[in-house]
Amino acid sequence: MATTKDKKEKEPTNIVHQNAIFCETVRKEQRHQKLYTNYGLNPYKKVHAVTGKPHSLHDSGDGKEDELFQLTYKKAQQVPQDKFEYPVTEAQEIGWFSASLVDQQRNDPRLHHPKNHSEITKFMDAYWRQKEQEKLQE
Fold first, then answer.
1. Do 104 and 111 contact (CB within 8 A), yes or no?
2. CA 36, CA 14: separation in Å to the nearest integer?
3. Which helix (H) or strand (E) holds 121?
4. Residue 55 and residue 134: Cα distance in Å, rounded?
5. The dihedral of CA 74, 76, 78, 82: what is its sign?
6. How far apart are CA 80 and CA 84, in angstroms?
7. Would you say 71 and 77 are in contact if contact means Cβ atoms under 8 Å apart?
8. Along the 138 residues of the chain, how does pLDDT read in single tens digits?
């Protein structure tokens, strides 16, 4: 049977030792930090213009436009097929060349399959419309 003397008692925390560990951690973090001061606009996010105050001098349209911003914005709004010659990722390969290989001919029954209605499909269409109307009335 173990007595309380055999068990190790927890030593009190050494504040100086804890502070030394904290200082070393901060030094390691600061060694790998890099401060970015050159901020820019994300070209892949839509920008919504907000109008300025009517009589404000700094909101007037006078001045030089930023050409780099204009080019970046135009390029971001393009579809990937216009930006790149070939697909960049594997996911883009699917549907990259989306032009149809065969011209659509509506009079050819092999290529054109219009939606056909039978008695049961007409009944179900009416049923679903009725259910939707009931939901709206509730």
1. yes
2. 37
3. helix 119-137
4. 53
5. positive
6. 6
7. no
8. 555 555 677 888 899 999 999 999 999 999 988 877 777 777 777 777 777 777 777 665 666 778 888 888 888 888 888 888 899 888 888 888 877 777 778 888 887 888 888 999 899 999 999 999 988 887
Q: Name the residue among 112, 94, 89, 92 with its Cα closest to residue 102.
A: 112
Contact 69, 41 (CB under 8 A): yes
Residue that has been written with the tokens 């939707």 in this structure:
132
Residue type, 108: D
Dist. CA 76–CA 80, nearest whole Å: 9
Question: Do 41 and 47 contact (CB within 8 A), yes or no?
Answer: yes
Nearest CA to 60 out of 52, 70, 72, 49 is that of 52
CA distance linking residue 126 with residue 123, whole number of Å:
5
User: Residue 48 corresponds to which tokens in the numbers above?
Assistant: 């919504």
pTM: 0.32
In terms of Cα–Cα distance, which of 64, 13, 6, 71 is closest to 41?
Answer: 71
